[in-house]
Amino acid sequence: MKKWLISFSLMPSLAFADGLNTGDSAWILTATALVLFMTLPGLSLFYGGLVRSKNVLSILMQCFAITCVVSLLWLICGYSLAFSDGGSLNAWIGGLDNAFFANIGKDTLEGTLPKTLHGMFQMTFAIITPALIIGAFAERMRFGPMLAFSALWLLGVYVPVCHWVWGGGWLAQLGMYDFAGGTTVHITAGVAALVAALVLGNRKGFPAQGMLPHNMTMTVTGAGMLWVGWFGFNGGSALAANGDAAMAMLVTHISAAAGSLAWMALEWKKFGKPSALGIATGMVAGLGTITPASGFVGPAAGLVIGLAAGVVCFYMVIFVKHKLKIDDSLDVFPVHGVGGILGTLLAGVFASSHLGIFSGFGFAKPEYTMLDQLGVQALGVVSTFVYTAVVTWLLLKLVGLFAPLRVTSDEETQGLDIVLHEERGYDL
Amino acid sequence: MKMLTAVIKPFKVDDVRDALAQVGIQGMTVTEVKGFGRQKGHTELYRGAEYVVDFVPKVKLELAVREELLDQAIEAILKSAATGKIGDGKIFVSDLEQVVRIRTGETGAEAI
């Protein structure tokens, strides 16, 4: 599991003790490709179909460009700051020993994996996190400021939180459970989305005018790719080809199915019809919510977590969009943020080995009770929430000093594809 | 000569075409359109909420008919396009001044 590997990496002499494992390496090579596939093209298609046809290219373009920018930043200093030893500051941030992947050769190991592979696998997580945020400001943010914000946000939010949880930082030392990124990926992205929606403001016409998906076929295709890619995300986070990986994949799949059906059932009951977007959104909720718990909980708990995800995220979408009237356009906070919070907390419950068929595989430290583990989980949630909200707000204001974040009202009406990219998604 | 413009429910278009063919109509133009009448819009589901979509998809038929076929054509559309539910559409009838067949240059009723 991640935290064990990290403790190995802090003791380089031990890191070589295991030696390279080709089975582990083969699986993580595959998982790395699966996680990149979640962003390109999974998330791109999922989001692209949800916006109006005049903005479809802007979504695809943002996902693509973020992938490129984050990849380079990860090489330059992101990986090092997230995963190397930060010396006296190690509780908060890593060091620069591995900047530009320095001191990493073909034979350098991280646990049983080549260290290059560990860096590459983690890079795909760094890519999808800022890409998730774009759903909040879809159809109105200018491209340049979006890129600047995404780059700054990666270094200002993702990298430190990643270090806290996975890089041997203070939350890791407390024994916080986040198997595959419920906190590092989904809470950070969800909270940043909420803040970005508030700073950018609602789309013109929201909420009176319904802004419906222009291509549900694209969205459901993307959703299917996300489901498959998530096996790499959660299964790969075992950083080994072993029982943890298999269990993570199993509970991930169960939770996705349960979340899908829960959402579908609620819509069916409330409106008389089960919708394709509903079942796909329930799937994302189920997957995001099981993410922090996968690897720590058993299959029966996966069922409970998935059902809870479908129900809670369903009502949170209605609450944020229709009660609070916040135009988090593609519902990133209520689905990813809330799912991440719910899953991080439930990991502290269902990791317990004393829940009968709902039992998991034990708490982080032998002396921990459920209350201890839950306390650590809650501390992780609250600190990540507050830190992400504050830094995201500051970064958006900072970028806004140099250039307007938002297109003009006329440009918004015309659509971002023509205005920002001088292209159209469709020429039928 | 008259110009018949009918706006009907999309799934009725084949029935209407067959009914018009039976009374001797030999051509028409079909367009997919959107609009609203007393049916207003319709609702669409989006993640736990219903939105009103103002314009409903319809099919517009345009056909030129000779005076003597007019009543039969209207009757054919009425019978084949009706479901009895709101939103069945409308038929507009207007005078048609001239028709020209491009291939031969024929004009008037001969060209229909």
Give a verbal description of the structure.
The complex is a heterodimer of chains A (428) and B (112). Chain A is an all-alpha fold and 428 residues long. Chain A is 68% helix and 1% strand. Chain A has 16 helices and two strands. Chain A has helices at residues 2-9, 12-18, 22-50, 56-83, 115-133, 143-166, 170-174, 182-200, 216-236, 243-271, 276-290, 299-323, 332-350, 370-402, 409-414, 416-421; strands at 109-110, 113-114. In chain A, strands 1-2 form a two-stranded antiparallel sheet. In chain A, helix 6 runs antiparallel to helix 14 (370-402), helix 9 packs parallel to helix 11 (276-290) and helix 12 (299-323) runs antiparallel to helix 13 (332-350). The longest helix of chain A is centred in the last third of the chain and has 33 residues, at 370-402. Residues 5-16 of chain A have low confidence and may be disordered. In chain B, the strands form two sheets. Chain B has a four-stranded antiparallel beta sheet with strand order 2-5-1-6, covered by helices on one side. Chain B has a two-stranded antiparallel sheet with strand order 3-4. Chain B is an alpha+beta fold and 112 residues long. The longest helix of chain B is centred in the last third of the chain and has 12 residues, at 70-81. Chain B is built from two helices and six strands, in the order βαββββαβ. In chain B, a hairpin with a 2-residue loop joins strand 3 and strand 4 (49-53). The interface between A and B is medium-sized, with 19 and 10 residues.
